[in-house]
Amino acid sequence: MDISVISFNIRHCNDKNGHSVLERIPRIFGILKEENADVIGLQEVRPHWEDALKENLLKDYDMFLKYRAEAPDIEASPIFWKRDKFTLIKSGYFWYSDTPNVQSKGWDEVYDCHRMCCFVLLKEKVSNKEFLFINTHFGFGDNCQVKSADLIKKHSNDFKNLPIFITGDFNMTPDTKGYKQMTKYFTDVNTVTENYSGITYHGYYEKNVNGMHIDYCFINDNVKAKTYKLLDKTFDGKFPSDHYGLKLELEL
Hints:
Helix content is 18%, strand content 30%. The protein is α+β, with helices and mostly antiparallel strands. The strands form two sheets. The chain has a six-stranded mixed β-sheet, with helices on one face. It has a six-stranded mixed β-sheet with strand order 5-6-7-8-10-9, covered by helices on one side. Strand 7, helix 3 and strand 8 form a beta-alpha-beta unit. Helix 3 runs parallel beside helix 4. The longest helix has 15 residues. The radius of gyration is 17 Å and the shape is globular.
C-alpha cells in the first residue's frame, strides 16, 4: 500500500513583515489542499489555530490532538488522516521525561516547557492494513534528544511488526547525537531518496545562513521510502511558516 505523508511545523505565533497567523493561514492550508496527503502531522498548533483547522482540514480529515500542558505552555503536534480511507484503532501520547505517562517536564536543556509525542494506529479501509503514525516535536540538547529517541523506540516496540513512520520537528541536525540515536532505530527517508542537504528551518529567509536541517520523517523496516519533497512554496515573497514542510511518499 502506498501512502502520502506531510509533516509541517506551522509556527505558533504572529511574526512581522506579512507573517502573522491570519496572513499565513491561507498559505499553509492552500499548500495542504494542493498536496492532498493521506495523513498529516503538524507541529506548534495552539488554540488560536483551531478555527482554521476546522475550516480547512476537518471537513475531510479526522484528527487526534492532545495539548502538552496548560497555559502558558499550550501547544500540540496533532495528527490528521483522511476519514474516507482510514479507521482509527488506537491513539496515545507520552511526555519526554522520566515519568512519560503523566504530564511532566523532562529533558529539554534550553526551554522550560513540556515536550511530548503523539501516535495513532490506523487501519486502511480497503486492505485492512494497519500502521503506526507518530508525530512529535523534540526539545533541545543532546541528552534530551537521545533520551527522546530511546523513548520513541521503547513505545514503538509494541507495534514493531507493523509499518511505523515518525514525523516531526526534531530540533537536531544530522551531525548530532540525537540524530545518530534515531537512525540507530529508524531510517531517515531523506537519506534513501532525495538526499537533500539544505535547510528545513529558514526563519522567513530563503538563504538564511543560520537555517538548519531539523525536520524529518523516519521509518522502520516495514516501510519503503519512495519520494521526498520539500514544500518550499512562497507567496509573493512571503512564507507559510518559518519551516518548510515535507511531503513523503511511502510504501507500507
